[in-house]
Structures are given as structure tokens and as C-alpha cells.
Amino acid sequence: MSAPNTASASRRRFLAQAGAMAMAATAPYAFGAPATAQRRRFALIGVGGNGTGTAPVGQKFADLTALCDVDVGHLDRGNRLLCGGKADLYADYREVLARGDIDLVQISVPDHWHTKILIEAMRAGKDAYCEKPLTLTIDEGKQVRRVQQETGRVVQVGTQQRSSFNLFNKALAIIADGRLGKLKRITVGIDAGAWSPEIPVAEPAKGFDWERWLGPAPLVDHRFLKDPKGKTFTNGHTQFRWWYEYSGGKLTDWGAHHVDIAMLGIAAAGQNNDPTSVGGTAEHYVEFKDGVPTRHDRYNTAHAFNLDVTFAGGDVVLNIRHDVDNGILFEGDAGRLFVNRGKLVGKPVEGLRADPLPEDALSKVYRGMPIEGNDRDAHWANLMYSIERRTLPISDVHSHMKMLNVCHLAGICCRLGRTIHWDQATEQITGDPLAASMMSRPYRAGYQIEG
């Protein structure tokens, strides 16, 4: 099928000189792709809320030519909103990957599909923007990293907080400049998980291929309920993250953002961020046996948790909990600061007025790469910069998985109700065969990840 012209999107004029950057503590970089660069074509795989929310940013940098989803309703809506009705539409992502005229893909499917599609995309010669959390399990992360190294494809994970210039990177720059001293404790607030009533079995909506949506996950009935106030509960669209079968609840949702910044902060302080254990308490709305929920008619991820992560250096503890403000509190022996998506506060922040950060402080925490825009804009811009130069983007699969493994370990800790010990050198859970077996999941026949 030939690729049609997409609707005109707002376009960014790239500067010809990538090295001509201006950096100040409150202003972003400007940068440009080489003057000869042509706009690439990309496909959106997964046309739900995250897909349609992030793809318009990608359209500033590349032409969206194809949409893929197992729900006809998603396809029609996405085509209308994003492409003026002119996109090529697919139900099977493999047809998208077979197209030689598509350079990169945005993968915005539910978490349990990320790894399979991403691996096949890299092997098909595509670069990718993949939503977080990158994987459903620890072992999937090992597969993704291996294939990325084998293929050399550029993969940007959608942890756009890594490209937040005014808040998160500024916080990391303050830490790296020694303004907090030696870090002692980091508290990560990621809110409580969701509750549901008993959700009855229900037929999927017309045009929604439920079997295909499940893919690698076990074959189960579709469930759906709308309460009198209009709130919906389901094991499918929009609510999949509250089921361990498809996601990891808050621990891999907000955790994949805030634990990420916390671990970058430990490294910025020059301290060891190799995890060694995760322990604490958690509460679920269903009972578990050997780490497996005993009921399958309501949300089963942890709704309450208070977990401590220890690291090889032994000098800092990372506390992940549901009952404090959403964000990250860094506490050192010389100061403390709090950062989230709305604010950056603390005496070290106030001190910048009289004693600004060095001019290169933000550049250093952004690996010396230029920053254009902020948050999602900057994150996509960084992907395009990295594709042009065939370098690792700011949120590469390797550093992402080191952080995400902590979130996965936290989930295993919650499900088993005991401390989990980790060997970073071998990337293995130690001293607990049942916990170690939960580093992977079986795939349903026909949906295995090959190789």
C-alpha cells in the first residue's frame, strides 16, 4: 500500500548549526538537524489516549503516515484527529513494520505488548519512540537491550521527565553541583493505586479485537462495567494498568517517571545507584497465593505501599510510597529539595538567585546534548537529534531498564510480601527461587518473542 500525504502539521524550523547553542539556567537550547536532513515518516502503533496525546508532538518533526490499532474505533478517531482522514490504517502491526518507507514507529500500545513490537521493529530496521514502562518483566528488558545492541537502532523511551529542562533537569543539576551534599534519603510519592468493584464479563465493543489486544497475555474474558456516575471499570482500554497481567500498577506507571529521576539523582551526586534489595509493605484489594492473584474480576495491582530500596553504596535509601505528595523529595546532609511536574522548591533552589549554577550545569546532566523546548517537545527533538547522529538518546533502553528493574522488583516484593534481594552484576534475584521465576512471564501460543 502506498503512503499518502498526511495533513499538514505544525513544523519546527531547524537551525543549520547544531553547535550554536545558548544555555542559561532558565532558557532552553536551540539546535538543528543537518541542513540536508529530510523529514522522516513514522507510524503510530496504538492509537489510544497516550498515542493520540504524544503523536502530535512527533508530527512537528516527522510525517505521520500510518496508524495501527486492534480497535476500529481508535483508528477512525485517530485518523480524523491526527491525519485529516488521510493515513493508511492497519490492524496488524507487522504490516506496518514491513513497509520500507516508514523510518520510525511510535509504540503506544498497552505495556504487555511493548517488548514484542519493539523487538520486531528494531529487527525490521525501524527506530522507535516507545512509551514507558518499556517492558512487563525484568527478562524482557534484557532481550530489548540485547537486540538494541545487535541492531544499533535508536530507541527513545517515553520518560519525558528526562527532558524537563526547568524542573527535573534543573533539580539534577543542583544535586550534581553538590548543593545537597551527600544524599541520605529520597522519598518518591506516586499516589495510591486504583480500586474497582467486581467487574462482570461483557462483550467487547464492535470492531474491538479482544483476542488480538490480549496478545501475549493469557486468554481471558473481556470485562466492563459503567457505574451510575458514568465511571468505567475494565480489564481492557484505559484501565489495563491496574492488572498485573498487563502492567504493574502505580509502581510502573508513575514509578517509571519518578524512580527514574530519583536514581539519576543518586548518580548525579556521585553515589552508587546499583540496587541491592527492595522490602516493605503493600496492600491489594484481592488475595494472592505464591504471588498470583486469586480473583480475576477486579483490579489486582497494589493500591497502598511503603517500600525501601537499598543500594550497593549503603549510604542512601529510596522510599517509594503512596501516601505523600506526588513527586520526589531529595534529602542530603547539606540540604533538601522537592520536585514534581508543577514545582521545584527548597533552600538550594532559593539559593540560585544569589549563587547561580555554572553555565554548563544543565548541559552536563543532559549528556552534553542540546535541549529544544521542554518535556515532550524536547524529548521528541532529542530522539531526532539522536537518529541523525546514531547515538543513544537521553532516555535510552539501557539506563531506563536499570531504573525500571527497581519498579519490577518492587512489584514482586508487593506480590510476595517479602524483601527481594538483587545482584546487579548478574541481574538476578538471589536467594528466592519463586521470586526469581517472576522475572519472566510465559507467552500465549502464537505470541512468543522469537530469539
TrEMBL record:
Domain of life: Bacteria
Keywords: Oxidoreductase, Signal
Enzyme class: oxidoreductase
Domain Gfo/Idh/MocA-like oxidoreductase N-terminal: 41-158
GO molecular function terms noted in the UniProt entry: inositol 2-dehydrogenase (NAD+) activity; nucleotide binding
EC number, UniProt record: 1.1.1.18
All residue ranges annotated as the Gfo/Idh/MocA-like oxidoreductase bacterial type C-terminal domain in the record: 206-448
SUPFAM superfamilies hit by this protein: Glyceraldehyde-3-phosphate dehydrogenase-like, C-terminal domain (SSF55347), NAD(P)-binding Rossmann-fold domains (SSF51735)
Signal sequence extent: 1-32
Gene3D superfamilies: Dihydrodipicolinate Reductase, domain 2, NAD(P)-binding Rossmann-like Domain
PANTHER family recorded: BCDNA.GH03377, OXIDOREDUCTASE FAMILY PROTEIN
Name of the protein: Inositol 2-dehydrogenase
Organism: Pirellulimonas nuda
Gene giving rise to this polypeptide: iolG_12
